[in-house]
Specification:
heterodimer, A: alpha/beta, Rossmann fold, Alpha-Beta Plaits, 2 domains, 4-stranded antiparallel beta sheet, B: 269 residues, 12 helices, 77% helix, globular
Chain lengths: 301, 269
């Protein structure tokens, strides 16, 4: 059996996207292979949702091209292999859950049984309920069922767990991990760093319309090479700490001050030289949170 | 290691052949459109109930002589209201909900989206007219030849097309609350100034002068022609009214097309 390289799930080539004078995307290139779990990470307005819209064919790039399994996603027929959860969705209130899920299933080539999608999404009890009667959390599960029922090869999830409580979010992550185990490609946007870290094996950091980092969560963290410092110092104030050389994202957490720095030695030396009294000092490697802040603030500078 | 017959049979029974299930999407989508419409109390009450209600309330005093005339005008009203309002509210609401956006992630085609709305609107209007016809026969003692019944429905169905297109135009132009207000106001104005509620003979002269320029006036004329009523008819032949409706259809088609393209370029470009 000859092995041919599978066509990438998504390919974005030299894409810019302008809305009038606003430059939402300033020339991005990326390729997502089948089976990857990618998180697009970035602050609000960075261009993540725009990037997803382009990949879904919902919008057209101003320059450059987007390919979904090698085809143009603007053409309706090329969207038979995708499932999507969008940010601001609404559905007709008078349809029942089961009817909606069945409808969506039929837009795909090899959908699962409606009942199965409802079961995975935890909606069997609501199968015959009208949409207008559902709570916010139940509606989110319906959107998941709609994304799932078509047995898509790629999932596009735009901020899928916003507003969900912790327990529901974790169960959703389990479902996603199950899909990953089945070999599906997942493209996720989130500004929940814990979520990106928990699900993705590749993180693409977008800020101001450009890709500023692209790698595994560990690579992203290492790339930054800074340290997370925390200590108690009852005589110091947050304002003073913020003035220290190299201090970033200083904050108070419980009784301790916490911050991130790429120059831990200089910062500690300055503190000690000025006679600061510290206790419970901890210096650890950067988490994704700090890496992200560092990357985006570096990008702003 | 050779498999025993038993093992082979077991394996074959356990794994059913992989089937590519390809159930038609359009038929189920159309079915859902029907469900949406008939589960909407506003459509049932205003679209299907009102024409019959108006016939009974306003018309009962005149049934002896004018029942057939009244049947025609309220049938025309029903066709107009259902096609115009249902289309505009359905499109406007779905746009503002974000349902359009979600549908966009599927392989649905715009032809299926608008086409099934068109068909459903027509079905609803026919239902409205049929209900009215039943009421007219039972309560109004209307007796007409089968050909008159057939012509009434047969002319009103294509006659709805300009109004459905106007509904599409309105649905894509406004946001949902603006569209609802405009469609209600327009419906009332047009119904009154075209003689569909109160005969034009009883309206002030400036309205009588204005009426022939309104598409609903011509829809009424067509309906009266179909039932063979002469009381409210002007002296123009049927084909003239059909031509005028056709012209309105073209105008509204262009407007609807423009509104659709505008919505596309604002939200999906």
């Amino acid at each position: 059996m000859t092995t041919r390289k599978a066509v990438p799930a998504v390919e974005v080539r030299n894409v810019t996207k302008h809305y009038g004078s606003v430059k939402a995307l300033k020339g991005i290139n990326l390729t997502i292979e089948q089976g990857e779990v990618v998180s697009l990470l970035g602050p609000n307005g960075a261009g993540k949702s725009t990037a997803i819209s382009l990949m879904l064919g919902m919008r057209r790039p101003t320059t450059g091209s987007v390919f979904l399994f090698g085809e143009n996603p603007r053409i309706a027929d090329h969207r038979r292999r995708i499932g999507a959860m969008l940010q601001e969705s609404g559905v007709p209130g008078t349809l029942k859950v089961r009817e909606l899920v069945e409808m969506f299933g039929r837009f795909h080539d090899n959908p699962m049984e409606t009942r199965e999608a409802l079961e995975i999404a935890g909606l069997l009890d609501q199968a015959n309920t009208h949409m207008y009667r559902l709570s916010g959390g139940q509606k989110q599960r319906v959107y998941f069922a709609l994304a799932l029922v078509g047995n898509p090869d790629v999932f596009f999830l735009d901020e899928p767990t916003t507003g969900l409580d912790v327990e529901v979010r974790r169960r959703f992550w389990e479902q996603i991990r199950h899909q990953v185990a089945l070999g599906k490609t997942i493209i996720l946007t989130t500004h929940n760093l814990e979520e990106a870290d928990a699900l993705a094996n590749r993180i693409i950091v977008i800020n101001r319309g450009e890709i500023i980092a692209d790698g595994t969560p560990d690579e992203i963290k290492q790339h930054v090479g800074g340290k997370h410092i925390s200590f108690r110092a009852p005589r110091l104030t947050l304002a003073e700490l913020r003035r220290l050389p190299g201090a970033q994202a200083a904050q108070v957490s419980g009784h301790k001050f916490e911050f991130y720095t790429t120059q831990p030695e200089l910062l500690l030396a300055t503190l000690f030289k000025n006679g600061a009294e510290l206790s419970d000092l901890e210096v650890t490697g950067a988490g994704l949170e700090e890496a992200f802040i560092s990357l985006t603030s570096r990008n702003e500078a | 290691m050779a498999l025993t017959t038993r093992q082979i049979r077991h394996t074959v029974e356990e794994t059913p052949p992989a089937t590519i299930r390809h159930k038609a999407s359009w038929s189920y989508y159309f079915y859902c459109e029907i469900l949406k419409i008939f589960r909407d109390p506003a459509v049932i009450v205003f679209g299907i109930g009102f024409p019959s209600m108006f016939f009974l309330i306003f018309g009962s005093a005149f049934f002896a002589k004018y029942a057939t005339t009244l049947l025609a005008q309220y049938a025309a009203y029903g066709a107009f209201v259902v096609s115009f309002q249902t289309f505009s509210s359905s499109v406007a609401i779905e746009r503002s909900q974000g349902w359009n956006k979600l549908l966009r992630t599927t392989s649905i085609s715009p032809v299926l989206y608008l086409g099934s709305k068109f068909l459903v609107v027509m079905l609803t209007a026919i239902t409205s007219i049929l209900v009215l016809c039943v009421v007219a026969v039972l309560v109004g003692n209307v007796h007409m030849a089968f050909s008159s019944w057939a012509m009434l429905i047969g002319l009103l169905v294509p006659g709805m097309i300009p109004f459905a297109l106007a509904g599409i135009f309105l649905g894509f132009i406004g946001n949902s609350s603006l569209s609802q207000i405009i469609s209600t106001v327009v419906t009332l104005l047009l119904s009154f100034t075209s003689g569909l509620f109160i005969p034009l003979q009883f309206m002030p002269s400036f309205i009588r002068a204005l009426a022939p320029y309104l598409p609903t006036y011509h829809l009424g004329q067509v309906a009266w022609y179909a039932v063979g009523s002469t009381w409210a008819r002007d002296n123009n032949p049927l084909w003239l009214h059909l031509v005028v409706l056709g012209v309105f259809a073209i105008v509204f088609a262009l407007l609807a097309g423009w509104a659709y393209i505008r919505d596309e370029s604002m939200n999906f470009a």
